[in-house]
Specification:
Elements lengths: L1 E6 L2 H14 L4 E6 L7 H18 L2 E4 L4 H7 L11 H20 L4 E4 L9 H12 L5 E2 L9 H11 L11 H7 L19 H16 L4 E20 L2 E2 L3 E2 L10 E3 L1 E5 L2 E4 L5 E5 L17 E5 L3 H6 L2 E19 L6 E6 L11 H10 L1 H5 L3 E6 L7 H10 L4 E2 L9
Parallel strand pairs: 1-2, 1-4, 2-3, 4-5, 12-13, 15-16, 15-17
Antiparallel strand pairs: 6-7, 6-14, 8-13, 9-14, 10-11, 11-12, 14-16
Helix pairs in contact: 1-2, 1-6, 2-8, 4-5, 8-10
The structure holds iron/sulfur cluster.
The site of iron/sulfur cluster has 11 residues, from helix 4 and helix 7.
Amino acid sequence: MKILVHICCAPDALYFLKRLREDHPKAHIVGFFYDPNIHPYEEYKLRLVETERACKELGIELYEGEYDLEGWLHAVRGYEEEPERGRRCALCFDHRLQRSLEFAREVGANYMTTTLLMSPKKEMSMLKESGQKLCEGKGIVFLSPDYRKGNGTQEMFKLSRSLEFYHQDYCGCLYGLFKQKKDPIQWDLLSFGGRRPASKEELLFIKEVRYFAESIGLRCKEWEFSFLNWKLLQGKVEVGGKTLPSFVRPFSQSIRGVLKADPSEVVGNTIYYNKGGLKVVLVDSLRDEPLSKITGLCEPTFIVPVSYRDLLLENRIVATLQTHMGVDKSSLLLIGSLQASEILGLPADTLQDGRGLSFEYLKNLLLEKLDSIKGEELALLLIGAYSLGNPGRTYFEERVGRRVKTLHHPYSHTP
Ligand code: SF4
């Protein structure tokens, strides 16, 4: 008996595969992650890397299907406005299961099923109908076990949480996302470049590092913490129609509309303007620097190379700035033991200029320090939102009562 299991995400897969293996102890189970319905791509990668971790945990081989976004969009075209559990979802199931069926035949499976059956928000009858219809006459039997019943859903959440798997908070596609989340800004669909605090990119990095660390036999533990996040949506300073290279100081407030202002005072390396509390800080070389602590909201502050000093002092400035502040969640990953003699904190995020630790750097560091980490001389703490005053370090030190040693220049070991 060979069963091809279409997999949609790690939490569903973990429990479903465990139960499936209990029911079919002699079966050869193969996992297939085929989900081009997941948007954006970073979310897809996040669910994939967690599925890889779940399959590794269970010792199940996993294959990744194509991310054919266009094919999926084409398959549901005309049904974008449908509610969840409506016609678009039926087409989405057909699309994913049709490709899974082809793959089942490629690997010689004689049974097929899907972890979508585990998902509490999916209509079991729709999935069953789709799978049975597609498999009919193809020499493959579609299995549709109901592992949700008898507390299965609660057990699934419990198991997944105990192993610290990522839990998505929307089904997957952009059409469902707009309906499920009422937020006027769809943060899930925005990409900030690099790995900005609390972004999907930052969490994906943490999960990828965890996957690697566990694959070389290191134990890991994660915590999630809340903090006041600051996001830059857009910012620009112009003089005489020319845009100057600049960064925005974190926690700068937005400017309403367009601000035209004249320099009124220079104190040290800072030019103060006559309107809107606008400031320009002149620096020798344009680099973003991490905040050592959160000092609260500040006036709109741009950082500009000192070579533009004269131009700025002799002309009117035109500035636009849109930022967002709100409570967000980021993560901490401890690699090694909490009892280790020393805990070294490293940033998981990147600065506005893209500087930050690369995956390669961390991989090499883990290999180099493997014995000290296993021997509890050292543990590494990968810290999200480090660049915004390092609130994760404060959270960790209070939460577990251990001090974290941090690097003097945490973003200097850059790719
Ligand atoms: S809501 Fe979910 S099941 Fe429905 S179309 Fe979107 S991704 Fe597919």
